[in-house]
Design goal:
It contains 13 helices and 10 strands. It is α/β, with parallel strands linked by helices.
Length: 309
């Protein structure tokens, strides 16, 4: 499958049970997105807690995702690192596994210069012939990829898109201007998906799509079809839920919410931990306000009735 880098692409959580990858739950989540209009699955990113996965677990999640997707939905494998050799190793595995593309976060902690960033991404691109999406999120990495650096990177043939999480629409517009359309602009922030589409973006790599995949896909489809009033309505309706996803560090709230809805066990790996009682109560209220928690309770009752029969 050739990835279009458009629409609702989910930053998939990695479900754990007893500190191991919950493979049946992962397969169920993939089936949910196949049937919900999600255009691509992005495993092993920040939301997938890639920082706490061993090499073997990281490889297994990518392998399992590709196998479960079975070509029905694109897979953009998270393969970034602050170690260029490690990023190359992970990206090579993603290609061998059959992923459609790879997502590379900018190197974190070691704070490379703009030239260092360019050389890092260029080295991965030259080592592995797979479409690459660059991930710019200075709040996590301590370094911003400047628009001028993107303009250089756009000359590398298999660097094809950027997941932009700077929150700066002016910067995003500059990236589009300087790269002259050679890089697809993908929102990395659910709250800014609609504004990013309005300036020429193509979609979102979404956290909230873990919970409401059909709604995120429908908002983008409405915008692309010219139904702007509907797109704005859907955007505004989702905003309180999106805000709740970031009451604490991602992916703590989204995994907690998925646990409340019976989608996965809400298990996290240290140093991430469970939500505070106050924030968990706020999250629960957001789920109720959106109508999700009531629906989940109804579904659980239906399952119980079925078992009794």
């Amino acid at each position: 499958m050739r990835c279009s880098f458009k629409g609702s692409m989910v930053a998939l959580v990695t479900p754990f049970r007893d500190d191991k990858i919950d493979e049946p739950a992962l397969k169920r989540l993939i089936e949910l997105h196949v049937s919900s209009g999600t255009s691509a699955i992005v495993p092993c990113g920040t939301t997938g807690e890639s920082a706490t996965l061993s090499f073997e677990e990281h490889d297994r999640v990518i392998d399992l995702t590709v196998q479960a997707a079975r070509g029905r939905i694109a897979v953009i494998a998270g393969t970034g690192s602050n170690n260029t050799r490690e990023a190359i190793r992970l990206t090579k595995h993603a290609k061998q596994a059959g992923a459609d593309a790879a997502l590379l976060i900018s190197p974190y902690y070691n704070k490379p210069t703009q030239r260092g960033l360019y050389l890092h991404f260029k080295a991965v691109a030259e080592a592995v012939d797979i479409p690459l999406v660059l991930y710019n999120i200075a709040s996590r990495t301590a370094v911003n990829i400047e628009p001028e650096t993107f303009a250089q990177l756009a000359q590398v043939k298999n660097i094809v898109a950027v997941k932009e999480s700077s929150g700066n629409l002016e910067q995003m517009s500059r990236i589009l201007q300087l790269t002259e359309g050679r890089l697809a602009l993908i929102s990395g922030d659910d709250a800014l998906t609609l504004p990013v589409l309005a300036i020429g973006g193509t979609g979102v790599i979404s956290v909230v799509a873990n919970l409401v995949p059909k709604d995120v896909a429908a908002m983008i489809e409405a915008f692309e079809a010219g139904r702007r009033t509907e797109a704005v309505r859907r955007h505004q309706q989702m905003l309180p839920l999106v805000k709740a996803m970031f009451l604490e560090t991602n992916p703590i709230p989204v995994k907690t919410a998925m646990g409340m809805l019976g989608m996965i066990a809400p298990e996290l790996r240290l140093p991430l931990c469970g939500m505070s009682e106050a924030n968990e109560a706020r999250l629960r209220e957001a789920l109720k306000a959106y109508g999700l928690l009531k629906a989940a309770t109804s579904n659980k009752r239906q399952v119980t009735r079925t078992k009794r029969k």
